[in-house]
Design goal:
By secondary structure, the protein is mostly helical. The chain folds into two domains: 1-157, no CATH class; 175-317, no CATH class. The protein has helices at residues 3-36, 41-54, 71-79, 88-101, 108-127, 132-156, 161-191, 198-211, 215-222, 228-237, 245-260, 267-281, 283-289, 292-315. The longest helix is centred in the first third of the chain and has 34 residues, at 3-36. The chain is globular, with a radius of gyration of 20 Å.
Length: 317
Amino acid sequence: MLSRVADSLYWMGRYLERAENIARLLLVTEDFSTETQGFAEDLAQGVWKDLLAIFPAAQMTRAASPFAPLAVPYLHGFFLDAGNPYSIHFSVRKARENARSVREALTLEAFLAINETYHALETYETRGLADLPAFRAALTATQKGLFTILGAIDNTFARDETWRFLKLGEAVERLYRSASVLRVKLPALLAAEPRTDLPLYYTQWRTLLRALSSLENYRRVYGARLEPPLVIAFLLFDASAPRSLRYGAAALKECLEAIAGPGDLTPPARLVGRLHAGLYYGEGELMREADYAGLLDRVSGELSKVHDALAALYFVT
């Protein structure tokens, strides 16, 4: 495969995964903010500001109106603002540009699904969204459109190099973003005092699970037991939850091994292998140490090295 094609497929996978992540975070954040507004204002406002920590390179170009709800500038900035490199609109546009550059490698179903979702976003931006219910309806429709794209890819692509580089980009983005969400959310959650407002305390932990599409999966394992150590261990080390760090590292390792084929390990495969081994074998020690910030910083740092190693090995033209 030409390095240009591999690069476009990799970034197409990353941008699609990023767009779905942002859509989910916006919907979950809006839910929590609405639920807590009026009796926990600091929390209701803080969850929106967390988005700027999860996506530190985001650029909010629209000033907040004193008469509009706090959610509106964040919803616009992370949903429809084409100038924000971490908006859904920007990510879908970049995914579409990469898809168009390798059109011959894609199936018709996947290409049409990307186009339809992109044009729907263009329509929302042109017409504008008047209020929070309109934003929520448009976000929900966009998330469904993104799931349609991902479903078309999963159900129509041959499991060849095209598929593998797409899934490689998806795996890198998913693991990096899961680590970012946990790095931002966990310190405040661990510092919270459960005795002051127990229902609110547990709502925050449920919201974290929802932010990583893991609430139902967690309940299948633990039922109604919502205990912080169990939640943390699940999101870090569960072997079957698709957004746990351990599962993500395993998926990334599998992608790299499939692309490289038999033989010596490539530099990115070595990096991911060490990362996966630490998460696979070190669960007990890492949970005892409870240095979650240090662990998540290491994961993010290793993934940055993996990206650089991938670029040097596969994408340099």
